[in-house]
Amino acid sequence: MKKSQKEKTSDGQINVMLYCRVSSDEQTKGHSLEIQEERLRKHCRENNYHIINFDFREDESAKTFEKRPTIQKILKYIRKHKGEVDKLLFLRWDRFTRDIISGVETLKDLLAMGVEPNAVPGRPCEDVGLLLGETVCLCGGPQDDVGAGMRCG
Fold first, then answer.
1. What share of the chain is helix, strand, coil (3-state, %, to 5)?
2. Nearest residue to 104 (alpha-carbon basis) of 61, 143, 138
3. For residue 123, what pLDDT band results from cuts at 50, 70 and 90?
4. Centroid of chain to Cα 38
5. Is the Cβ–Cβ distance between 136 and 152 less than 8 Å?
6. CA–CA distance, 119 with 96 (Å, rounded to integer)
7. Which residues of 133-152 are buried (b: 16+ CB within 10 A; e: fewer)?
8. Cα separation of 23 and 52, whole Å?
């Protein structure tokens, strides 16, 4: 039987990394890095999560992970400290990625490393099979470019 994320740490706390991203001036209105961080920290306090201190703020408009330095540093940290990070939290799925293909690939990589990526509040994503719903959410990102975007999470 697969060990649940909550059983992973010996002291009962879940180790999480946060990821906040804005990609345009328009998105800073109501969804600034500060507001995203505040909401994520509140969620962590309410759930007794331990936040791993790390530079998690991204102010890049790049749609792919390869062109966003902060998420690259986070992923590198997770790979280097495999087993020490339980969750990667972000405010909404469109803050995580706007590119379906690299988004699903990165979700699969994170799950394979034992890290649950999730928007808060969101349901746990413990199986690659559950990525379909997240993929639908990711589809909303590119539509934002033409003004008809949907928001998930």
1. 45, 15, 40
2. 138
3. low
4. 15
5. yes
6. 8
7. ebeebbbbbeebeeeeeeeb
8. 24
CB 86 within 8 A of CB 56: no
Residue located via tokens 């994320």: 5
For helices 100-112 and 69-80, angle between their N-to-C axes, nearest 10 degrees: 20
pLDDT at 124 over 80: no
pLDDT at 15: 97
Q: Is the pLDDT of residue 86 over 90?
A: yes
pLDDT tens, residue by residue, 55-85? 787 776 666 677 788 888 999 999 999 999 9
Is the sign of the CA dihedral 37, 48, 122, 83 positive or negative? positive
Kindly state the percentage of the chain with pLDDT values over 70: 63
